[in-house]
Every structure is written in structure tokens, then in C-alpha cells.
Design a protein that fits this description.
The complex is a heterotrimer of chains A (432), B (170) and C (919). Chain A is built from 17 helices and eight strands. Chain A has 432 residues and is α/β, with parallel strands linked by helices. In chain A, helix 3 crosses helix 6, helix 5 crosses helix 6 and helix 6 packs across helix 9. In chain A, 64% of the residues are buried. Chain B has seven helices and four strands; from the N terminus they run H-H-H-H-E-H-H-E-E-E-H. In chain B, a hairpin with a 2-residue loop joins strand 3 and strand 4. In chain B, helix 1 runs antiparallel to helix 2, helix 2 runs antiparallel to helix 3 and helix 3 packs across helix 4. Chain B is elongated and about 50 Å long. Chain C is of the alpha/beta class and 919 residues long. In chain C, strand 23, helix 21 and strand 24 form a beta-alpha-beta unit. Classes of the chains: A alpha/beta (432), B alpha+beta (170), C alpha/beta (919). Chains in contact: A-B, A-C, B-C. At the A-B interface, strand 3, strand 5, strand 8 and helix 13 of A face helix 2, helix 5 and helix 6 of B. Bound molecules: flavin mononucleotide, iron/sulfur cluster and FE2/S2 (inorganic) cluster. FE2/S2 (inorganic) cluster (FES) binds next to loops of chain C. The site of iron/sulfur cluster has 14 residues of chain A, from helix 14 and helix 16.
Chain lengths: 432, 170, 919
């Protein structure tokens, strides 16, 4: 049995962890330790040493990100900010919700520690508006923290102070992109910002800002409390720590489990999700949400590690897999995803704003049996045009193209069949 | 939270409660326009949607032009610029739900309520909207009705849900 | 200077540029949409893609956006590599998915940046099979037409309108491929700079509405290098003509003055040139009071008869050219000549010139104004009196943001990053006026005072700067900001008709300049040649009041382009009318002076003649005709010469060309440089004159096809280096002679970059215009009038002039659209006064004074000096409202408020109904 870290307080599906139970289970010890005996630089070093990588999708090393925050003398006067990215809207992703609903204090402790490390005095939790329960539980937990001295002025008698706010989003996938999120927090249209300058230097209100995913931040208390070395031992592959892995689609037991980093895909699929539903076979899977590339059966023994999955041509993403079975149409699935991305494009840059609806139109024709060979060429053209990182202003559009490009690689026959048959060869999941 | 909607609230001035709530938001933003989204949500919570009159009133209160605020209001999915029913159905149509057959359930809802996406029932009880992934993919298909999340939808469950609502409404 | 390598070739580029700018400066054709030389980059359109290579070994490179990447030394890029070309073509292909194929009926056609870029990237075949998105259009007022379907979402409109010009009522709305640029609801665009949308939009979303109604393709327009006559700033414009009608006005780039933008008065205010108020024929007043048209050669008989050996007096005009004014003064002699403005105005303007000739501060161009980092405005509502300067000051307030960005290593062109970093931080701007101004939103402090108080305030500030003894915290604070600034700027002018304000401005500037030689002092001048006319004035000149007093001794009075009713009281006008003096009026439009004249000589408008105007900075600039005068119209200087011939003035009647007029003017000390303002008529570019028509002009054959199919002869132009034809070169000629911009592949106004030495830089044709005012730098000796001001009277209001971009200027007010926007004449009240009188915007009040009682509409100002009320200066029908009179104001219970401007109801709809797919 693997050690439970992030979910050690999580058992019952609808329960939350109140402050006393959280404290009883080593809660806020990390914070006490840091405020008593560690300087922000000590904390930063610990997080750096832990090799913690961001759980929001890109896997950027957290300690390194934090180290880009300018030191006091190098920045303009004003605050520094910490933002928790709780805008979970990536299709097929359902891990942050769990952490927030069932163990809000773990996140808050992680945020206080992170804020202490980077020198932020104001922190926001930017959360999906639809996560009503999480909003409620977080707000209550924050209230508890103010009352118990974990938040507010002079936390636990130290000289460190932090204000924390929950900001429910008004809804838009692009708000999950960290710079779009910052614009949304500023009350503006959530168009992403150009980088550089990175938010670490000029973020919220033009001041140094760190944006981290919920799961990333939830790791911090444990790293501080038990140390980087311990954290590194948790992973079974090359990455450290544990990770929430999820499986959705037509498997027997869809769900979300905390497992060591580097757990092989097959183990997750077969031991935890109990394999495919009866009568279905695995055709492919998106390893980490709707904007990652398909993997297939041949990849099942790969370890869920950032570089391993990357080398296989996909991305770890959020670590929540979407399973495509052999009786669902890959073209239809990709169309569903492209439709989502086209709908959620912020409309700022041309390839995404106008390119994605164009891709959607081609896929709709294909799925409806009105496609032609030329359409396949058009799709290939669009993949290059929209999907190459750097061609667009932010990463939404290239992400959108990942499932399509890999579907065309692995399931090309399916695309062809739609053309030769003049209809979708699958019993369709939906009507398009 | 959308509750007890005043159906077509067009009163142009903000209530003192709304102003109070907006002021709380204003207390932690460095400039008034920073509270734009919060203010829109506060007003929508009370009235169900944001009418032109409300939009103008909020803009004025935040010292913005109605154009600026309109640009913000129309950007976000959960700010409604047209009247909605008492409860908004946010029906997840993203990939995991799709794989698990959400399209069928969508038709079921349409059949029961006699409305398509973007429409409101005649009795103004429900507005039916698609929503991106609700983050409950392990329990697909899912939807929210008002504040409540419903999971593992199938035809009979959907029938049950709306029968219950009907009874509740009397 | 960094060197970059583009497709293997090295280019030296300016420092601090991005790669797009660098490529354009190198003369390369790199397509773009969202970037604007004056507004910087945001990287939204993705059109300016290049492939950048890490180093010599990098064979693949990666696509980058030229506009978002600094042109660092040694940067290696390719424009031609297939990957980059394919990407740029794909961008246009996606922009065209929803763009209507309506080029044949689109008024942008032929000068459309989207057309140019489409051809440039080679996109032709359409692969998209879906439906095009459609939008509803909005009614945006009489100036701008809205056709949203043509939008390619480059965000330039919003960025210009909101970020650059400070307009609040246009925004990007909705999202994804449904983005909509417009107002919240149908209605008139509020910005005084809305017309620039026409040129900023790379396609046909925002177009010139009056032009649409009287349309011609750009390639069929005949254009000229011209100068705006709307105010004293002297923006450069390019009027376009066809079929004898002035069709439209475009901005003409002048690096020092207007850059890329002009105000709406300048762009839309010249419709009067085609109007039915124009004077067309020589008219002579019949005994019954009506004018009879007579032949040109008949004027001599009448003049000889009227004059005999008698006394001839001339009245010049600040809106007539240097040449016309000069000749008239020469004709009648300085002691029988008046510059044609009121004594108060004359004294202030004369003082402004003399201050500029002695101040220790420098007298900035508009571009230099933009560089100021702390600004004090004394007594001017700049948006309405010198709009282009107001726009420059708005930019200057952003210098703080740029400084902050530079500190953090963010390039100035990285527009959104600069904005995000600085948020609402602005350079200090202090505005001291009697009423609210459109720059208040970017002011650190607005100070509301009566005219006398403004002057005192300035004086105290000057004292504080000199000796630091002030007790007033506000004065101390402003003084601190000004003294700690690197480039402080003081702006003032004659608007409030208070000479002390101008003195105090000079005192502040001089005090600052003692310790900071970068101090700038700028004055506004009300009319297009106010400065020029002051410069040619002589000590012996008459005042208008002298003329009225001695009217009976004058046999013939020649009035040059001047409606005296705007300067004289009604009583004085009656005296003038009752006198035996024969009045000869040379003017462009019918007006009240014309009504009381005995002879009318129809003058060519600015669009039909050439001449020199001197702007507020003292810069002399030449304007040229865009078509030869119709009917019996002649340039007013020509009329003066004709009169000279009649009265046998040999010196003047011997003049055979405009260049000779200029030579003559150069006899005046102030105008020695006049002939260098622009090349003389013998100038040839590669042996050819400069064409006013494009090479693609369709010819003018069709004009008279109903009567004759013979092509009418082009009018010859003997007077200037320009020709009314398409023959000749239009490239890199002296800037003063550039009528329009066009370059192969660049049909839109974006072709300007081919004429510039570098983007946003000076023109290759060199600077244009010559500064006639130089300062000795010895300092201003103050001439402050310490007569105590009249104290406030209970229940009386002191009238102060309020200017309006649309409405206060004489000629433009005769343009239909401008008069619509001007609305009714008004009285402006403070909110509190309005409340006390129980009136609000649009209600009526009765204004009464000594021999005055009128009923007039109300406007409420966000701030208004205590005891003051404003009146709409320059409007017709304001009766006897004049500055500094005391009046009583009461609610008019009988007033019928006018209905708001009627908007075509079928157009009232905002995008909402269609745009948000679901709610
Ligand atoms: C279109 C788009 C959507 C995103 N959505 C989310 C999201 O919902 N939650 C999240 O944590 N990160 C999201 N990200 C990633 C964030 O931009 C950012 O990288 C992340 O919050 C950093 O946190 P981490 O370093 O802890 O992973 C998104 C990125 C893109 C381009
Ligand atoms: S890729 Fe461009 S249009 Fe798409 S979401 Fe990002 S910035 Fe917006
Ligand atoms: S001009 Fe460079 S992205 Fe638009």
C-alpha cells in the first residue's frame, strides 16, 4: 500500500475535514515549523530540493518558478501576490475539486507556506463558480483560520501576515490560464497576457505574482513538514511525490486515487479503475485531460512521469485520463473536444479564434459523412498552423490540437472510413 | 447562487444590500473597476440576470462606462445578459460525459422540458444551458440544476429529478 | 545600433525596436494588422510571423511574432522561408472565413489593408465550407459608419479609441469568434477623435459616413498636401477631391505635429466647401438689398466709382493666409489695416507671441508635448480649443508607465505589458480651468477657478517656484511635481480672454526654466493663422474699434475672410451697416458681414488655393489646392491683386505669380524664411511635377459624359510644383509636397511607412514647415495687470466662454454633420447651480443682463467655478452673450426641451440577441 499524503484526511465521499481533525492529523505542523525555524529562503530551498513539479498541467518545477520572484529591492513598490489556480475546467479533470471539498485546510496551509516563502501578503483562491460546495467549504475554513491565527495579521505570533480571499470565477475555461486568470481577478476580460513579462515579475496589479495549481499547493505543507528527501522517496519513477490520478470514460470503476508519481498507466487502469466495461476494449486514452495527446495500448506500461509521458509524444497534463473505448468514435470524440476549445477560445488571437471553428467545421463534415480526402489535408494543415506552440498567443490552441493530431496519427483509418462510408461507422454516442 | 428570482427585474438602482456587498468587494481592490465581475455576480445573485438597466447602474457605481462593463459581462459564461428561469440547468457536454452518452440524456431533458439549449421553459422555471466539464467526470454524465450537482445521469434519474422539482414547485 | 540578419542579409536597425519595425524599416514587406506604429504591439493578429533561428547551426528555427520580439543585435530571422510564409497565409485564410466578400461595395475597397495583406500573402482559394458569422451594426452618429461583419478582430479600434484617445464608449464585447466592437447601445460616439477609427481600422468596419454618401475610390481621388484650418495647431491633412467636390479628409503624417491622428473637426469639418452657402459669383448689392451677379471685369467700375480719391481701409483675418493678409495690408497701408480681431484677443495673442520670443522655456511641437512628464494647464479646455494637443497630453500622462516599464526591462512597444505593469499610474497633470474638461480623467488634480483666480493661482505658483514661500499645500505640491520632473510643460492660451493667465503661465515656465532647461511652454492660438497674422501686424495697425469709431471717414472697407459679427457687438454691426462706407467682402461662405456688404468677391476655400498658415508653435506651413476654384471664385490674395490693379497700385498689380507674392511677404522681417517653407513652383522631382492623382486614376472622362464624351482638359497648375494629373512621381518628395501616400502593394494608408525614414519617425522628404518664432531666451518681463477683479455679485453669474470642438469654429459649423453634433447653443452651469434652479441637461433658462434677455438650453458641467456660468462660444444665435458680463439666470418654465436626436429605430439592437449563442 502506498503512503497517502494528499488524501490522508479524505475518506468519506461527502465529508470535509474540519480544522480540529486537520490539526489532529499533523495539520499546520509544517506551518508552525516554517514560522518558528525556517526563513523564506530555507523554505524555497526545501521546495526546490523536493523536485516538486506543477500539477496544473505544464509540470514546471515549482521551486524554480518561485525563485523568479524578484527580491525586495528589485521590484516596484507594492504587494506580492499568491494565487491558487482552482479553475479546474480542463475536460476530464476532477482532482482539485476533491482536494478543496474534502480537505480545505491542507490547501490553505499550503498557501500560507507558499506566500511566506515568496513574500506575498495577499492570496487569492480563484475557483470555478460552479464549485459551489468547494467555495462554501473553503470560505468556512478560511474563517476558521482567521479565528485560529493561521491567517490575518502576525500569523501564529510571527511577523508574517496574510490576507486570503476566495474569488469564484464568472466562468470561462481560459481563466485557468494563469495570465488570463490574473486579468479576470483584476475585473477585466480574461484574455491571456503576453509573456514575457512573466507574472512572477509583473502579475496581478502589475506586481510579482505566483500562480499555482491546487494540487501543487497541497503538497507544500508535507514537503516543509517532512522534508524534501522524504518527498522524493514517494515517487516510484523519476518524479517525486504522489499524484492524484483519475480515470473517466467507460471503465468499470471510474475515479480518482492518490498514487506515487511514476505509477504505470496499466496499474491505474486495471488495478484502480478495474479495466474496461464489459464488452468494450481500450482504443486509446488521453493521459492528462482534454488537451493531451492520445496514447494507445502500446503505451500502457509507461510510468506516469512527466518526461516519460512526454517522450511518448503526449503530456502528463493533469494526470486524469480519459479513456476512449473501441465502440466510441474517435472522430466524434475529437470533435467534441475541438468544439469545446472553439467555444472557450477567448478570441484574442487569430489562429485560435478563427482557426478552431474552421477545424470544427471540417470535423463536423467528416463526422456527418460529408468529408473528403481534401478535408484530411486541411486538418493536417490546421494542426501545423494552430497546434505549433508559439503560433498562438497562449497555450489553449496548441493544447486543443493535441488530441486531434494524435488521433489522426493513431486512428487514421477511422477518419478514412468516415469518408469512404459517407457516414460515421460507429453507433454514435451522440447526434451531431 | 440563483435563488428566488425576481423574474424581470429592471429596476435601475441598486438595492442597499447590493451596494453593501459591492462595497465589501471594493474594500480589497486597488481600483473600482477591479470589482466589476464581483458586482455583476452580486446583482445576478439577487435578480437572476443582469439587465441593461442594472448594467448601467453598476457601471455608474464603479465609475466605468457601460461599454467597458458590457465588454466584461459578455465575456464570461456565467453572467447572464438575458432573463433566465428560476433555476439554470448547467448540462455538461464535455468529453467524458459525451463518452458516457450525455447526448441521449440531453434529449431526454429537452423532451421533458420542451426546450433546447439556450431556452427557458414557458413557466420560467428552467433555463437549459450546456457547460464545459463540471469536474465530476468519474460520475459522468452530470449536470447542475441551480446549486445542486446531479451525477451518473440516466433516463430514469432525469425523469425522477424533474418530477421532484415539479412536486416541489407544487 | 543592433544589426539583424534577415534571410542572410544584414541590416542595421534602430535600438529599442521590435523585429516587425526593424523589417519595415529595412524596406521589407512583412504583413501585420494589430501592431500600430504609434500604439505598439499586442500580438493578437499573429500576422507578422517570422522564423527566428537560435544561431548559425539552427536549421529549423521557430515561428515568432515580429511585433512581439525585440530586434536584438545578431538576431537571425527569415521572412521568406516556407514555414513562415505558409503560416502568414493561414492567418489571412482564417481572417477571411467570416469576412464578407463585399469589396465591390465596400468603401474601404482600394485602400484596404486587409486587401493588401491578402494579396501579399497570396491567399486566394477558400476552403472553409461553413457559414459566415454575422453581426448587427450600430448607429454611431453622423460621422462614423459601422459594418461589423467586416471585422477581423485586430483590436485596433478599441486600443485607439479607449487606450490611446481615452474614449469610454467603445469596447470589445463577447468573445471567441463572436467578438464585437461597438457601443453599449446605438448612439453617437462621444470621442472627439472618433474619425481616426476610419484610418486605424485595417478594413471597412468603421468608415467615413459623409464620404460614403458622396463616395469615390481612393484611386480616383485627387489629393493635395494641405493644412487643417480648424484651429491653431496646424495638423497636416490630405483632402481628397473628385468632380469638383471635396470628398473627404485624411490625416497626412507630420512627424512633429499630428503624427497619425487628427481630430474630428479637422476630418469632418470641411464639408462646408461643397455647401450651398458658398459664394460663387461676384455680387453687387442692388438698391433693393439683393445681390446681383456681375462679371469679374465689372468690379473696377464700381470700385473706382466708390473710391475716387478717397480712403480705403482693410480688415484682415486670422483664418486667411499670411499671403492674403500681407497683400491687403500692403494695399491699404499698415495704418489703414486691422488684423481683424477684438482688442482683447489681439492683446493677448500679441503678448503670447512676444512671450514665446523671450521665454527661457522652449516652445514645443506636439511631439515634444508628448514627451513631457509633468504638465500644468492654465485656463484651457484643450480638447475643445486645440484638440490634437489634448491628445498629445493624454499620451504624455503615460510617460510614467513607460518609465516604470523601462525600469523593469519591458520595452516601450510592448503596449499591454506596459499597461499591466503601471495600471492606473499616470504622470502628473494639473488642470486649472473654470469648467470640466475632457482631460480631467487623466489629471492628478483638477482645480476649478474663475479666470482671475486662475491667473492668481499661476502667479502664486510662479512665486513658490522662485522663492518657495507659499503656505498653500496645493501650490507646494504642484510646484514639487514640476520641479522634480525632467521635462515639465506649461500650457495656456487665450480661451478665457484673460491676459493675466498668459502672463502667469509665462512666469511659471520661466521660473521652472531657471533650473531646468527642458521646461516647455506652449500656447494655443484660436485660429489657423492667428499666429501668422500677429507676426505680420505693424505698430500702426488699427483696432476694429478704431474703424467703427471713424467709419464715416472711410469710403471703401475691404473685409478679408472675416465675419465681423463674430467680433463686433450687434450695436457696432448696426453702425457699420448704417454708414455710407462701401464694404467689399472677400469670403468663402455667406455670413452676416456679407449681408451688409456692397460687393462680394467669392473666395477660394483652403481646398482651392495655396497659402501659408502659421500654427501655435510659430511654424509656417504651406497648403495647396486640391482642385482649381470653380465658378468665379479666386484665391483671396488674387482678389487683392485685382483690387490693386483697379486702384493702380503698381507694385501689387505687377505680381504675376504666387511665388512673387511670397517674395514680397519676405520683406517683412518675421517672414524672411517664407520662401523656404516649401519649394517654389519650379521644383521638379526627376524632371516632373508632383501628381495630385494616383497612378491608377480612372480619368475624369465620365464627369461630363451626359453632354460630351471628350475628356475635359485638366486644369493647369502654373503656380505650384504640383499638377492636376497622374503623371509624375509620388515618392520621397519634400514632405511639404506629399499629397497622399501609396506604394506598390500598399494601397492603404499603411503605405506611409514607405515614406518614413523609420516607423513612427520623420519622413524621408525631411521636415516640413519652418518655425518663425525663436526665443532670445532672455526671460519674460512680467506684465501682470493687478487691477483687482470685480467681486462676485449675489444672484449674478459671470459669463465665461465654453468651447466646443463641434460648434465653436466658424466655418466647420456650416458642415451639416458638425452642426448636428454641436446641438443648441447653451449655458453651462455647475451641478449645484442647476439643482438650485431646478434644471438639468437640455432644460431651458432665461439669461438676462443689461440689454439682454434670451432663452437658452442648459448643460451641466461636472465642475464649474463658483459664481461663473459658461456660454457656448462661437455658436450662432448666442445673442449678446460675451465673456465677463454679469447676468442673471432663471429657469425658463416655458422651455420646450428638444427631443433627443432621432435614431433610425430599425437599427436599434445590440449584438446580444445574436451573439451569445446561449444567453
Ligand atoms: C488554456 C489553459 C487552461 C488552463 N487551466 C488550468 C486550470 O484550470 N487549472 C490549473 O491549475 N492550471 C491551468 N492551466 C495552467 C496554468 O496556466 C498554470 O500553468 C498553472 O496554474 C500553474 O500551476 P502549477 O505550476 O502549479 O502547475 C491552464 C493553462 C492553459 C493554457
Ligand atoms: S490561443 Fe489565442 S484566442 Fe485562443 S485562448 Fe489563447 S489567446 Fe485566446
Ligand atoms: S502585427 Fe504582430 S501579431 Fe499583429
Amino acid at each position: 500500500m502506498t503512503e497517502k499524503v494528499l488524501t490522508k484526511n479524505i475518506s468519506n465521499v461527502n465529508d470535509t475535514t474540519p480544522i480540529d481533525r486537520y490539526e489532529a492529523n499533523e495539520g499546520y505542523l509544517g506551518l508552525r515549523k516554517a514560522l518558528n525555524s525556517m526563513s523564506p529562503d530555507d523554505c524555497l530551498l526545501e521546495v526546490k530540493n523536493s523536485n516538486l513539479r506543477g500539477r496544473g498541467g505544464a509540470g514546471f518545477p515549482t521551486g524554480m518558478k518561485w525563485s523568479f520572484v524578484p527580491k525586495h529591492g528589485d521590484c516596484l513598490p507594492g504587494h506580492k501576490y499568491l494565487i491558487c489556480n482552482a479553475d479546474e475546467m480542463e475536460p476530464g479533470t476532477f482532482k482539485d475539486r476533491l482536494l478543496m471539498e474534502q480537505d480545505p485546510h491542507q490547501l490553505i496551509e499550503g498557501m500560507v507556506l507558499s506566500a511566506y516563502t515568496i513574500g506575498a501578503n495577499i492570496a487569492y483562491i480563484f475557483i470555478r463558480g460552479e464549485y459551489r460546495l468547494a467555495i462554501q467549504r473553503l470560505s468556512e475554513a478560511i474563517e476558521e483560520c482567521y479565528n485560529s491565527g493561521y491567517l490575518g495579521g502576525n500569523i501564529l505570533g510571527s511577523s508574517f501576515s496574510l490576507e486570503m480571499y476566495v474569488h469564484p470565477s464568472a466562468g470561462r475555461y481560459i481563466c485557468g490560464e494563469e495570465t488570463a486568470l490574473i486579468n479576470a481577478l483584476e475585473g477585466k476580460r480574461a484574455n491571456p497576457r503576453a509573456k514575457p513579462p512573466f507574472p512572477q515579475v509583473s502579475g496581478l496589479w502589475g506586481r510579482p505574482t505566483i500562480v499555482n495549481n491546487v494540487e501543487t499547493l497541497c503538497n507544500i505543507p508535507h514537503i516543509i513538514h517532512k522534508g524534501a528527501e522524504w518527498f522524493k522517496t514517494l515517487g516510484v519513477g523519476e518524479d517525486s511525490g504522489t499524484k492524484l490520478f483519475g480515470v473517466s470514460g467507460r471503465v468499470k470503476n471510474p475515479g480518482c486515487w492518490e498514487l506515487p508519481m511514476g505509477t504505470p498507466i496499466r496499474q491505474i487502469l486495471e488495478d484502480h479503475a478495474d479495466g474496461m466495461q464489459t464488452g468494450l476494449n481500450l482504443k486509446g486514452l488521453l493521459p492528462g485531460g482534454g488537451s493531451t495527446d492520445f496514447l494507445t495500448e502500446v503505451h500502457l506500461d509507461l510510468a506516469m512521469d512527466y518526461n516519460v509521458i512526454g517522450a511518448a509524444g503526449s503530456r502528463m497534463g493533469t494526470g486524469t485520463m480519459i479513456i476512449l473505448d473501441d465502440q466510441s468514435c474517435p472522430v466524434g470524440m475529437v470533435l467534441n473536444l475541438i468544439r469545446f476549445f472553439a467555444q472557450e477560445s477567448c478570441g484574442f488571437c487569430t489562429p485560435c479564434r478563427d482557426g478552431l471553428p474552421w477545424t470544427r467545421q471540417v470535423l463536423e463534415d467528416l463526422e456527418n459523412g460529408k468529408g473528403s480526402e481534401a478535408d484530411l489535408e486541411t486538418l493536417a494543415y490546421q494542426i501545423k498552423y494552430i497546434g505549433t506552440p508559439g503560433n498562438t498567443h497562449c497555450a489553449l490552441a496548441p493544447g486543443a490540437m493535441e488530441p486531434l493530431q494524435s488521433a489522426m496519427k493513431y486512428f487514421f483509418e477511422d477518419f478514412k472510413n468516415h469518408i469512404t462510408l459517407g457516414r460515421c461507422p460507429y453507433e454514435m454516442n451522440g447526434v451531431y | 447562487m440563483i435563488h428566488n428570482i425576481i423574474q424581470s427585474d429592471t429596476s435601475s438602482t441598486l438595492t442597499s444590500e447590493e451596494i453593501h456587498l459591492i462595497n465589501i468587494e471594493l474594500s480589497h481592490v486597488p481600483q473600482k473597476s477591479g470589482a466589476a465581475i464581483d458586482a455583476l455576480k452580486i446583482v445576478q445573485d439577487k435578480r437572476g440576470w443582469v439587465s441593461d438597466e442594472c448594467l448601467i447602474a453598476i457601471a455608474k457605481y464603479l465609475e466605468m462606462s457601460s461599454e467597458e462593463l458590457e465588454g466584461i459581462a459578455t465575456f464570461y459564461n456565467l453572467i447572464f445578459r438575458r432573463p433566465v428561469g428560476e433555476k439554470v440547468i448547467l448540462f455538461c457536454d464535455s468529453v467524458s460525459c459525451w463518452l458516457c452518452g450525455c447526448e441521449k440524456q440531453k434529449h431526454k431533458i429537452s423532451e421533458i422540458l420542451k426546450i433546447d439549449y439556450g431556452e427557458t421553459t414557458k413557466n420560467k422555471q428552467f433555463t437549459f444551458l450546456p457547460v464545459p466539464c463540471l469536474g465530476a467526470c468519474d460520475k459522468a454524465p452530470v449536470m447542475m440544476v441551480g446549486d445542486e450537482l446531479f451525477t451518473n445521469l440516466d433516463s430514469s434519474k432525469i425523469e425522477q429529478i424533474f418530477t421532484d422539482y415539479e412536486q416541489e414547485a407544487g | 545600433m543592433p544589426t539583424i540578419i534577415v534571410d542572410g542579409k544584414s541590416y542595421e536597425v534602430g535600438s529599442g525596436k521590435n523585429l516587425l519595425e526593424a523589417c519595415l524599416d529595412a524596406g521589407l514587406d512583412l504583413p501585420y494588422f494589430c501592431w500600430h506604429p504609434s500604439m505598439g504591439s499586442i500580438g493578437s493578429c499573429r500576422q507578422c510571423a517570422l522564423v527566428q533561428y537560435r544561431d548559425n547551426d539552427d536549421q529549423h528555427g521557430r515561428i515568432i511574432m515580429g511585433c512581439m520580439t525585440p530586434a536584438t543585435d545578431g538576431a537571425r530571422v527569415s521572412l521568406k522561408v516556407e514555414k513562415a510564409k505558409e503560416f502568414r497565409e493561414a492567418v489571412v485564410e482564417s481572417l477571411m472565413l467570416n469576412h464578407p466578400h463585399d469589396c465591390p461595395v465596400c468603401s474601404e475597397g482600394g485602400e484596404c489593408h486587409l486587401q493588401d495583406m491578402t494579396v501579399m500573402v497570396g491567399h486566394r482559394d477558400r476552403r472553409y465550407k461553413g457559414k459566415k458569422n454575422t453581426h448587427r451594426n450600430q448607429y454611431l452618429g453622423p460621422l462614423i459608419n459601422h459594418e461589423m461583419n467586416r471585422c477581423i478582430t485586430c483590436y485596433r479600434c478599441e486600443r485607439f479609441y479607449r487606450d490611446y484617445a481615452g474614449g469610454k464608449d467603445l469596447s470589445a464585447q463577447a468573445s471567441r469568434d463572436r467578438i464585437y466592437f461597438g457601443r453599449h447601445q446605438d448612439g453617437i460616439l462621444e470621442s472627439e477623435f472618433s474619425g481616426n477609427l476610419v484610418e486605424v481600422c485595417p478594413t471597412g468596419v468603421f468608415t467615413d459616413k459623409p464620404f460614403l454618401a458622396d463616395y469615390s475610390r481612393k484611386w480616383d481621388l485627387q489629393s493635395s498636401p494641405s493644412i487643417c484650418s480648424g484651429c491653431g495647431v496646424g495638423c497636416n491633412i490630405s483632402p481628397g477631391e473628385r468632380y469638383g467636390r471635396l470628398k473627404r479628409i485624411h490625416n497626412r503624417y507630420n512627424h512633429e505635429i499630428n503624427g497619425y491622428f487628427i481630430c474630428d473637426r479637422g476630418r469632418f469639418g470641411a464639408g462646408y466647401v461643397n455647401g450651398d452657402k458658398r459664394t460663387n459669383y461676384v455680387g453687387i448689392k442692388e438698391p433693393n438689398g439683393a445681390f446681383k451677379a456681375i462679371k469679374k471685369n465689372e468690379i473696377s467700375r464700381h470700385i473706382i466709382q466708390w473710391l475716387g480719391n478717397g480712403n480705403i481701409v482693410g480688415i484682415g483675418s486670422p483664418r486667411a493666409s499670411v499671403e492674403s493678409n500681407y497683400l491687403l495690408q500692403k494695399l491699404v497701408g499698415p495704418s489703414k489695416f486691422s488684423l481683424g480681431v477684438s482688442q482683447t484677443e489681439h492683446n493677448i495673442l500679441k503678448r503670447q507671441v512676444s512671450i514665446l520670443q523671450t521665454t527661457r522655456a522652449s516652445n514645443p511641437s506636439v511631439r515634444e508635448i508628448e514627451m513631457a512628464d509633468a504638465i500644468l494647464v492654465l485656463g484651457e479646455d484643450l480638447t475643445n480649443t486645440a484638440a490634437r494637443i489634448a491628445l498629445a497630453i493624454r499620451q504624455a500622462t503615460k510617460n510614467k508607465a513607460i518609465a516604470m516599464a523601462t525600469k523593469m526591462g519591458i520595452e516601450e512597444w510592448h503596449d499591454s505589458a506596459v499597461r499591466n505593469l503601471a495600471q492606473k499610474e499616470l504622470s502628473p497633470l494639473f488642470i486649472t480651468t473654470t469648467a470640466a474638461t475632457k482631460l480631467d480623467d487623466v489629471a492628478m488634480k483638477t482645480i476649478t477657478l474663475s479666470p482671475d483666480e486662475i491667473a492668481n493661482f499661476g502667479l502664486e505658483l510662479a512665486r513658490q517656484l522662485a522663492d518657495g514661500n507659499s503656505q498653500d499645500p496645493q501650490i507646494i505640491e504642484i510646484a514639487t511635481y514640476l520641479t522634480t520632473a525632467e521635462r515639465p510643460l506649461i500650457v495656456s492660451g487665450p480661451s478665457l480672454l484673460n491676459a493675466n493667465i498668459v502672463e502667469s503661465a509665462a512666469a511659471v515656465a520661466d521660473a521652472l526654466a531657471m533650473s531646468n532647461q527642458n521646461t516647455q511652454l506652449s500656447f494655443t492660438f484660436p485660429e489657423s493663422n492667428s499666429t501668422g497674422s500677429i507676426l505680420l501686424g505693424e505698430p500702426q495697425n488699427l483696432m476694429l474699434s478704431d474703424i467703427i469709431e471713424n467709419i464715416d471717414e472711410i469710403d471703401v472697407l475691404v473685409v478679408l475672410e472675416n465675419d465681423l459679427s463674430r467680433r463686433l457687438s450687434a450695436f457696432e454691426m448696426t453702425q457699420l451697416n448704417a454708414s455710407q462706407t462701401k464694404i467689399i467682402s472677400i469670403d468663402v461662405l455667406e455670413n452676416k458681414t456679407l449681408e451688409i456688404s456692397d460687393m462680394v468677391l467669392p473666395a477660394a476655400s483652403f481646398a482651392e488655393t495655396q497659402g501659408t498658415l502659421v500654427n501655435n508653435e510659430g511654424r509656417a506651413q504651406r497648403f495647396y489646392s486640391v482642385f482649381s476654384p470653380l465658378h468665379d471664385r479666386l484665391p483671396s490674395w488674387q482678389w487683392v491683386i485685382d483690387i490693386a490693379a483697379v486702384i493702380e497700385n503698381e507694385e501689387l498689380s505687377a505680381i504675376a505669380s504666387f511665388d512673387e507674392v511670397i517674395d514680397l511677404c519676405a520683406q517683412n522681417n518675421n517672414f524672411q524664411a517664407l520662401s523656404s517653407v516649401a519649394p517654389d513652383k519650379n521644383f521638379r522631382d526627376h524632371g516632373l511635377k508632383i501628381p495630385r492623382q494616383t497612378h491608377r486614376n480612372s480619368g475624369r472622362t465620365a464627369i461630363t459624359a451626359n453632354t460630351s464624351v471628350h475628356e475635359p482638359q485638366q486644369s493647369p497648375d502654373e503656380e505650384t510644383p504640383l499638377t492636376y494629373s497622374m503623371e509624375g512621381l509620388n515618392r520621397d518628395q519634400p514632405s511639404a509636397l506629399t499629397p497622399f501616400v501609396w506604394s506598390p502593394g500598399w494601397n492603404s494608408n499603411q503605405s506611409l511607412q514607405k515614406f518614413q525614414a523609420e516607423t513612427d519617425g520623420p519622413l524621408k522628404g525631411g521636415p516640413s514647415g519652418i518655425k518663425l518664432i525663436k526665443s532670445s531666451g532672455c526671460g519674460v518681463s512680467l506684465d501682470y495687470d493687478r487691477t483687482p477683479s470685480v467681486s462676485l455679485k449675489n444672484n449674478y453669474w459671470r459669463l465665461v466662454p465654453i468651447y466646443s470642438l463641434h460648434g465653436s469654429e466658424e466655418l466647420s459649423l456650416h458642415t451639416k454633420e458638425i452642426s448636428e453634433l454641436a446641438g443648441l447653443p447653451f449655458i453651462m452651469l455647475s451641478g449645484r447651480d442647476a439643482d438650485n434652479m431646478k434644471v438639468s441637461d437640455g432644460d431651458g433658462v432665461i439669461v438676462s443682463g443689461d440689454d439682454l434677455r434670451i432663452s437658452i438650453s442648459v448643460r451641466v458641467s461636472a465642475r464649474m467655478a463658483k459664481g461663473c456660468a459658461g456660454y457656448s462660444a462661437g455658436y450662432n444665435e448666442i445673442g449678446h452673450l460675451t465673456a465677463d458680463t454679469y447676468v442673471q439666470i432663471n429657469r425658463d418654465d416655458e422651455w420646450q426641451p428638444l427631443k433627443p436626436v432621432v435614431i433610425a429605430t430599425d437599427r436599434i439592437a445590440s449584438f446580444k440577441s445574436e451573439d451569445n449563442q446561449y444567453v
